[in-house]
Amino acid sequence: MSNEQPIVNNELSTFIDEFLEYLEIEKNCSKLTIRDYRHYLEVFEQWYSSTQQGKEIKDLDLAAVRKYRVFLANRADEKGLTLKRVTQNYYVIALRSFLRFLIKNDHKTLEPSKIDLPRTESRSLKFLEKEQVDRLVMEADTSKEEGLRDRAIMELLFSTGLRVSELVGLNRDRINLERREFGVIGKGGKSRLVFVSDRAAQWIKRYLDKREDNFKPLFIRYSGAIIEENGGEKMRLTARSVERLVKKYVRSARIPVDATVHTLRHSFATDLLTNGADIRSVQEMLGHKNIATTQIYTHITNRQLKDIHKTFHSGNK
């Protein structure tokens, strides 16, 4: 095992730090987004510093970018598997955003628009049918407080379309079960109103009625030491824990879809559109900045196309 330290380009390292500060302060990006960009750009920094020695970021050209993409194509993840094409694109997208930032701040470098992104295979949108959602949420053992929490989490995810980061950031005093609504701050600091279904409100109430603590977080952990300081902030359930518990119930319910927390967000949108909601309203409820992002759902929920098929396809006669 080599003890060599990675070569660091001090100028490049400084520029990356400035870019990450820009994302945090001016673009109001989430901590998760900043963490990902830091990882992508640190990989680029180490590669550029070790393979393009003596060169500064102003010397970056398309030939170097092509070599970097070959490096990414052969790079292995923590499991020893080569990076998927879509994952490779994340690294390149981060690099283009970084270069765009540099040019905006009058630093000479490669024009990011010259770096093309290869097309990736379109992925089918995963969502659960209503019957599958019911099977999933009923897997939680609600005779226990932890099971009540898990049921309330899954009901709330399907009821609101919350992102997992938004869910774990909720506090008890934010939830108005009488009005069945509350506000959240989503990606890019965009605020929106979310609505709680009657069933989700019922399970949240049952969960909170069972709790005997005064901790601020809406959803808390039940393992590890109890830490009461700062309103029990360190008792807050993490996004990773929510992802794990959803996976656990997907397996135990034998759901034939590799469903994740985000699958419940897809299921929320699909359920609304299938039942006649308009695309603009769903866009607002999901907190999408652009309507194009929401339109990925329309090809599976277009009732007019379904009716046309039913009426005119000879197999339905």
Topology:
Elements: H1 10-25, H2 31-51, H3 62-74, H4 85-104, H5 130-137, H6 145-160, H7 164-168, E1 181-185, E2 191-195, H8 198-210, H9 229-232, H10 239-252, H11 261-274, H12 279-286, H13 291-294, H14 298-301, H15 303-312
Antiparallel strand pairs: 1-2
Helix pairs in contact: 1-2, 2-4, 6-8, 6-11
Give a verbal description of the structure.
Helices cover 54% and strands 3% of the residues. It is mainly alpha-helical. The chain has two domains: 10-114, Orthogonal Bundle (DNA polymerase, domain 1); 130-307, Intergrase catalytic core (hpI Integrase, Chain A). It is globular, with a radius of gyration of 23 Å. It starts with 9 loop residues before the first helix and ends in a 5-residue tail after the last helix. The model is unreliable at 1-7 (pLDDT under 50).
Beta-strand content: under 5%
Biggest sheet features: 2 strands, antiparallel
Shape descriptor: globular
N- to C-terminal distance = 70 Å
What is the tally of beta strands? 2
How many structural domains are formed by the residues?
A: 2
CATH class of the largest domain: Mainly Alpha
Q: Strand sequence of the main sheet, in spatial order?
A: 1-2
Return the string of H and E elements: HHHHHHHEEHHHHHHHH
Helix count equals 15
CATH topology of the largest domain: hpI Integrase, Chain A
Structural class: mainly alpha
* Average pLDDT over all residues: 87
Low-pLDDT stretches are: 1-7
**Helical fraction:** 40-55%
Rg, alpha carbons: 23 Å
Fourth-tier CATH superfamily name of the largest domain: Intergrase catalytic core
- The name of the CATH architecture of the largest domain is Orthogonal Bundle
